[in-house]
Structures are given as C-alpha cells and as structure tokens.
Amino acid sequence: MSSRRRIRLAILPLPNAVLFPRTLLPLDISDQRGRQLVADALDDDSTMGVLLLQPGWERNYHQSVDVYGTGGIGLITEHRTVEEGNYQILLHGKGRFAIRDFQQITPYHVAEVEMLEDRLPEERQVRKMRRDLIRYFLEIAENVSPDAVDRAVLSELDFHTLVNSVCASLNFSIYEKQRLLELEDLGERGDAVLRVLRDQVHQLRLISRFRHLEPDDARVN
Fold this sequence. Notes:
38% of the residues lie in helices and 25% in strands. The chain has a 5-stranded mixed beta barrel with strand order 1-3-4-5-6. It has 2 domains: 4-116, Archaeosine Trna-guanine Transglycosylase, Chain: A, domain 4, CATH 2.30.130.40; 123-209, Methane Monooxygenase Hydroxylase, Chain G, domain 1 (Up-down Bundle). Helix 2 runs parallel beside helix 4 (159-169). By secondary structure, it is α+β, with helices and mostly antiparallel strands. It is built from 6 helices and 6 strands. The chain starts with a strand and ends in a 12-residue tail after the last helix.
C-alpha cells in the first residue's frame, strides 16, 4: 500500500512552525496564502502540512523560498476567524512526511509527500528513557511554573506522545526542533532531547547554587 499522498502545505513565516506527531500546535494565520489554505482545508478534510522555512527566507519570501524537506501533517481541530479574515487554528499532529514533488505553488503550495513512520526502540530502553524524560522535564517545569505540569498526566502518556510532547514543549531553537523532527528512530529522538534536558537542568542547578548572591535590589549590579 502506497504511503504517498497529496497535501496542502503551510510554508509561512510562522515562529513555531514545527509540528510533531501527537502534539498540539496553535497557529495564527494572517498571510493571504495561509488564509486561503485554511479555508480550503476546512471545506475538505481539515488536514494540512507544516514546513519550516530555511534560515534567510526573508530575502526571497515573495519569489521562491528554501524549506526543510521534512514536515508534520496535522488535523485542524479548532479554528476561529478573527480581525480582517485571519484565522487562529489548533493543529493536532498526525504524522511526519518527506516532500517528494511540489505540484502547485499558487495560491498556496501543494505537494506529493511520503508519510514517514517513527521506529520504536526496545521496551527496556523505553522504560528507562520514560523515567529520565519525566524526571528532567518536571525539574525544569517546576522551576518555571510549579503548577503547570502534572506528573500523573505525564506518566499516563504513551512513549511516542511523551517524547514528541517534550520536544515540542522545550524552550530552545526552532531549528533544533526541526532536527529532532527529522530523526526517524524514536529512541534517537528521545536520546537527543534528553541531552537538551540534562543541559538545561544542569544550568538550573548551577544558577540555584548562587541565587543567594543576588542583591535584594535588582537595579544593583
């Protein structure tokens, strides 16, 4: 059975345009092409793909742009029209894809893509990685917003959803997120995001050790 399909693509200057499977991505669509894409998607099957623009896209955005070859496909689960016909939408990630051939560029991009499968690691690796992901992620979250994350909710997530949710939630470069999206082995993706988590936790612990040296008056250097 062929894993290829034809999809509409959002190739827009969006600040958070990396969509992982099994995650939610809110988007504000104000570009004319994006508005038409969303309207057509809602009239059809409510699916659309998201591709990240390559660095330097600003120079040629209205002519031709370079994009990454791997993106995420999602289902529009919520939408509303705001001022000037713009959209606010919520995408639920359904999978990853690789571009095979652009078939249309106006009024928006349409391409034939190949759907990509995430390879699962062995169960023993899954158990250890789950524990580490939850532990480090919670330590970071509790430093930022103690009531924002529920350990029980994280523990109930299946491994696939847990890895991708952590990838999507971390505050780091959009291009680093793109690199994680391109990894086809879910174990490799989990290992890569764990390295990021460990680095961030190390920095938080280092900062906390010297927090007592901060002046009472923030204006004092």
